[in-house]
Specification:
Blueprint lengths: L8 H7 L14 H11 L11 E6 L2 H10 L5 H4 L2 E8 L6 H10 L5 H10 L2 H4 L2 H25 L3 E5 L4 H7 L6 E10 L13 H4 L5
Antiparallel strand pairs: 1-2, 2-4, 3-4
Length: 209
């Protein structure tokens, strides 16, 4: 497994850029991908319901097929792996398992566990749109964390929201409970990313009270 680099968080944030040209000969091990994902799942989520799921695609022929679904984006085929982040519209169904695990670990007591489970009663009463928005937001938090972890380990990434999500769901037999949120290419850059600028803070800070 690759040695984790020792850089400050600030350095990693500043060095991370969206890379679209990848070395197609470079392969990341399955163990490394799983380790990155495990660390990424430490991201926060609404009620700690962790409404994210993953499909990891490294098979070359499958990536070629996915490229057409992703509007012919080159990085889909040349990156070492494509991580599809899915959202869970029925995240509340995981509540008992998650809170039960916290009870077993000694982090909470039985009373707290029951209170947390009862607190998830809001979710099944909410509309599907509301639940998808919650899951998408949480999947976004995880995705950013995943990309920073990958960069810290010496890998490059780019997120792709531009793909046919219905075709993706059909191709990979995604259960109705889940929905595609974003694709993340992970690999080694074959060419540097384009430099970009950011709007001045004064342009984006509406108020400071």
């Amino acid at each position: 497994m690759q040695t984790v680099l020792t850089k400050s968080l600030s350095e990693v944030i500043k060095e991370r850029h969206s890379v679209r040209k990848y070395d197609p000969t470079y392969k990341i091990s399955q163990a490394e991908i799983k380790d990155i994902l495990s660390e990424a799942t430490l991201a926060p989520s609404s009620s700690n319901l962790q409404p994210w799921r993953f499909i990891v695609i490294q098979d070359q022929e499958t990536k070629k097929e996915l490229r057409s679904i992703a509007f012919n984006q080159e990085q889909v085929e040349t990156a070492s792996a494509i991580i599809a982040v899915l959202g869970d519209k029925e995240m509340y169904k995981s509540g008992e398992k998650i809170y039960g695990s916290a009870l077993e670990a000694g982090y909470i007591d039985e009373v707290t566990m029951q209170r947390l489970i009862e607190g998830t009663n809001f979710y099944p009463q909410a509309s599907e749109e509301v639940r998808k928005n919650i899951a998408s937001f949480d999947a976004g938090l995880l995705s950013m964390q995943l990309m920073l972890i990958a960069k810290d380990r010496g890998f490059d990434t780019v997120t792709m929201g531009g793909f046919n999500k219905q075709q993706f769901a059909e191709k990979f037999n995604v259960p109705e409970r889940y929905f595609p949120v974003v694709l993340i290419a992970v690999g080694k850059a074959a060419a540097p990313a384009h430099n970009t600028t950011r709007m001045p803070l004064d342009d984006v800070m509406i108020d400071y009270i």
